[in-house]
């Protein structure tokens, strides 16, 4: 029965209580500058985890390492049974499991909303046009943008574009969603509509990792908070603990500034 | 009242003039040629230079047809070779990138005339295709020679357009599990078309203006034909001005609208 041991195989399925994302002692350098100084972090399936901290503390770098958009020099990043920090990594297979949404939306400006959402399922998953279109329309409805299918990104508001970006990512049926400061570039009045979409996603049981400056939202929606500063995780715990009972003075100083 | 009306009409005319300037240039050129032709028919002394020009005009225009054919084919070839070369310049494979850069810079930084002579002498006169032998005519060689420098410049335009696409486009395409190749063909290159169109047209105009260089090698394009016509008409020195003025008009009438369109596209692109 040895071959059923989770150790050692790509086929190893992640059991319910094992973390779906497990980061161990990750270090990253830009030249001689160390931006991640030994980060460890665990996310369980279905959990919502928020990473907070001052600008330049390595939050965005960390989240981009989870789907291999940035590489790391040391440590291990395990995502749904795949080791990311491995030269033989099948990066396409990894990214099919991990969706990412960015601060600047990054929609494809030469394609309509519908085409933006359909593109990856058609190209990567080789879905038929009919089924990709049907799913795309359902996702566009889910982010409350029915009627905008034929609009180009340039014709939409920031909040609408960001919701298209979320729908586009969901079209790949990811197991994990990464959100990299997705409301930071938005007008205050459109922040809410994007947060609503993420809240619904979390309620559906999607595993979400967010880098965010929306402390109220983090407190409300997160199962676990990580506070980073200077490339290390200073403190982590359930939101009630971190927000009301921060132990580290750096966390307290940061929270007193942003809340 | 009447004065007002006249004033209004003339201002309408003025507006038209400023709006469609190049059509007027074309019109003026055509009128000049027609007027010159008329004067020559009325006064048929020992043939005037203009009369000689008019007599040989179909021959010269036929030559100009070859200038156009060479420009179309050279541009097609330059684009077909230059676009992949530009993409190769941003390849992640060191060897591919280096070779592409080398070829690009070689042809961008050498005189077109030198490339023309090199192609002329390096390329064989005939090619053996197994059963048949195909002659390579001089105009075909010249076309290839004009395509090469433009290929280098298109390669550089494409490279510049690719790197000008925001890196966020790469991030989001790769975040959606597209491969590098899929990202290039579906996301990056389509966005490069609009960016590079004005420069591409500019190079077409420059290429067309360079085609008379083929005359040096005996290709019967417009300038070569005009020179042959002057020779045939007796080689009188007073032929030179009308013949070359005619050539000047011919190229100007063809190229100037392209230049205007390029400018308009550039403006539109800058605005959007």
TrEMBL record, chain A:
Provide the ABC transporter domain boundaries: 21-255
Which cellular components does GO assign to this protein?
plasma membrane
* Keyword Metal-binding attached: no
Instruction: Please name one Pfam family that this protein belongs to.
Output: ABC_tran
Q: Does the keyword rRNA-binding apply?
A: no
List localization entries: Cell inner membrane
- Which CDD domains does this UniProt record tie to the protein? ABC_HisP_GlnQ
Q: Which SUPFAM superfamilies match?
A: P-loop containing nucleoside triphosphate hydrolases (SSF52540)
Keyword tags = Amino-acid transport, ATP-binding, Cell inner membrane, Cell membrane, Membrane, Nucleotide-binding, Transport
User: Per UniProt, what is one GO molecular function of this protein?
Assistant: ATP hydrolysis activity
Predominant subcellular localization, coarse grouping: membrane
Q: How does it sit in the membrane?
A: Peripheral membrane protein
| Family per record | Belongs to the ABC transporter superfamily.
Q: What PANTHER family is this protein classified in? A: AMINO ACID IMPORT ATP-BINDING PROTEIN (PTHR43166), GLUTAMATE_ASPARTATE IMPORT ATP-BINDING PROTEIN GLTL (PTHR43166:SF9)
Q: What is this protein called?
A: Phosphate ABC transporter ATP-binding protein
Organism, by scientific name, is: Pseudomonas matsuisoli
UniProtKB/TrEMBL annotation, chain B:
Keyword Cell membrane part of the UniProt annotation: yes
Q: Which UniProt keywords are present, listed alphabetically?
A: Amino-acid transport, Cell membrane, Membrane, Transmembrane, Transmembrane helix, Transport
Fetch the SUPFAM superfamilies from UniProt. Answer: MetI-like
Q: Which GO terms describe its cellular component?
A: ATP-binding cassette (ABC) transporter complex
Q: Mind listing the GO biological process terms from this record? A: amino acid transport
The residues covered by the ABC transmembrane type-1 domain are 64-262
* Location(s) in or outside the cell: Cell inner membrane; Cell membrane
The UniProt transmembrane annotation reads 20-42, 63-90, 110-131, 201-219, 239-261
> PROSITE patterns this protein is in?
ABC_TM1 (PS50928)
**GO MF terms held by the record:** transmembrane transporter activity
Topological relation to the membrane, as annotated: Multi-pass membrane protein
Which Gene3D superfamilies does this chain map to? MetI-like
What family is this protein classified in? Belongs to the binding-protein-dependent transport system permease family. HisMQ subfamily.
Q: List the PANTHER family.
A: L-CYSTINE TRANSPORT SYSTEM PERMEASE PROTEIN TCYL, MEMBRANE COMPONENT OF AMINO ACID ABC TRANSPORTER
Query: Under which name does UniProt file this protein?
Result: Amino acid ABC transporter
- Name its species: Pseudomonas matsuisoli
């Amino acid at each position: 029965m040895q071959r059923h041991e989770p150790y050692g195989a790509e086929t190893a399925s992640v059991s319910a209580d094992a973390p779906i994302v497990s980061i161990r002692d990750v270090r990253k350098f830009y030249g001689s500058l160390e931006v991640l100084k030994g980060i460890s972090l665990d996310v369980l399936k279905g959990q919502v985890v928020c990473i907070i901290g001052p600008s330049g503390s390595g939050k965005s770098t960390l989240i981009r390492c989870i789907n291999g958009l940035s590489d790391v020099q040391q440590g291990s990043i395990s995502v749904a049974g795949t080791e990311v920090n491995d030269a033989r990594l099948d990066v396409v297979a990894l990214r099919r499991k991990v969706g990412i949404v960015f601060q600047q939306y990054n929609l494809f400006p030469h394609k309509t909303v519908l085409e933006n959402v359909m593109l990856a399922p058609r190209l990567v998953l080789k879905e038929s046009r009919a089924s990709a279109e049907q799913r795309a329309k359902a996702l566009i409805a889910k982010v409350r943008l029915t009627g905008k299918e034929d609009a180009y990104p340039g014709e939409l508001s920031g909040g609408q574009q960001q919701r298209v970006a979320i729908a586009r990512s969901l079209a790949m049926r990811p197991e994990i969603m990464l959100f990299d400061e997705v409301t930071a570039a938005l007008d205050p009045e459109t922040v809410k509509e994007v947060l609503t979409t993420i809240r619904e996603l979390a309620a559906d049981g999607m595993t979400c990792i967010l880098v965010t400056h929306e402390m109220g939202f983090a407190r409300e929606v997160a199962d676990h908070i990580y506070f980073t500063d200077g490339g290390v995780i200073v403190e982590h715990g359930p939101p009630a603990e971190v927000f009301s009972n921060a132990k580290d003075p750096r966390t307290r100083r940061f929270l007193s500034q942003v809340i | 009242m009447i004065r007002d009306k006249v004033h209004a009409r003339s201002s309408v005319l003025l507006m038209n003039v400023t709006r469609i300037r190049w059509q007027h240039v074309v019109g003026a050129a055509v009128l000049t040629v027609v007027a010159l032709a008329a004067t020559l028919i009325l006064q048929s002394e020992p043939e005037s230079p203009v009369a000689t020009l008019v007599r040989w005009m179909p021959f010269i225009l036929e030559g100009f047809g070859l200038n156009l054919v060479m420009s179309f084919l050279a541009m097609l070839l330059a684009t077909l070779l230059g676009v992949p070369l530009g993409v190769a310049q941003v390849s992640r494979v060191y060897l591919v990138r280096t070779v592409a850069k080398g070829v690009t810079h070689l042809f961008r930084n050498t005189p077109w005339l030198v490339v023309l002579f090199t192609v002329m002498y390096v390329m064989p006169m005939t090619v053996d295709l197994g059963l048949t032998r195909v002659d390579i005519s001089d105009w075909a060689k010249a076309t290839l020679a004009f395509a090469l420098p433009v290929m280098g410049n298109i390669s550089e335009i494409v490279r510049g357009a690719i790197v000008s696409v925001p890196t966020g486009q790469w991030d989001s395409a790769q975040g959606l599990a597209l491969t590098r190749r899929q990202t290039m063909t579906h996301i990056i290159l389509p966005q490069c078309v609009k960016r590079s169109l004005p420069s591409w047209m500019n190079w077409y105009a420059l290429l067309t203006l360079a085609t008379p260089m083929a005359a040096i090698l005996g290709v019967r394009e417009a300038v070569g034909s005009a020179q042959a016509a002057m020779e045939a008409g007796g080689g009188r020195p007073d032929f030179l001005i009308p013949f070359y003025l005619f050539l000047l008009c011919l190229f100007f009438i063809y190229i100037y609208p392209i230049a205007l369109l390029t400018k308009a596209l550039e403006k539109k692109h800058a605005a959007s």
